[in-house]
Amino acid sequence: MESKKRGYTQVYTGNGKGKTTAAIGLAIRAAGAGLKVFIAQFIKMGDYSEIKALKRFSDLITVEQFGLGRFTDGKPAPEDIEAAQKGLERIKAVMVSDEYKIIILEEANVAAMLGLFAVQDLLKIIINKPYDKELVITGRGASPRIIENADLVTEMKDIKHYYQKGVRARVGIEK
What are the contacts of 119-124 at 24+ separation with CB within 8 A? Predict the structure, then answer.
């Protein structure tokens, strides 16, 4: 019997572009190796281009959305909090199942920062992560406590972006 290989906790944060893209790239690499991936999207809702593309890998990559697609700032409504809490419960179930080896919590840092759930809830997921699971948490504004408990942290730094010149998000590039 093969011993279980260690999984790590990775965090992609910062104000620069590319956090979700990096996580999805990792998911595709893992699928190429035959590993099953679970992606929980917090905040977002809808058929973004990356969701459409990942459907081609539906035998290995599962995407579930736990955002209502409308909450980005201000005080979260009870239904926004409820959707995020459902996501956390789903993640806990996925973590203890043997089905998935890589679990991606997309925009979970933002969800914590905006009060959809507590940073402590995200910390518990990191702390209780099974030895053989790889956990990836994305989103700007990662709490120092999340950064401290992660094994790998990449900060995407915004140096120059055409958004500053009024270029809106483009289908296939930013959305």
Answer: 119/143, 119/145, 119/146, 121/88, 122/146, 123/149
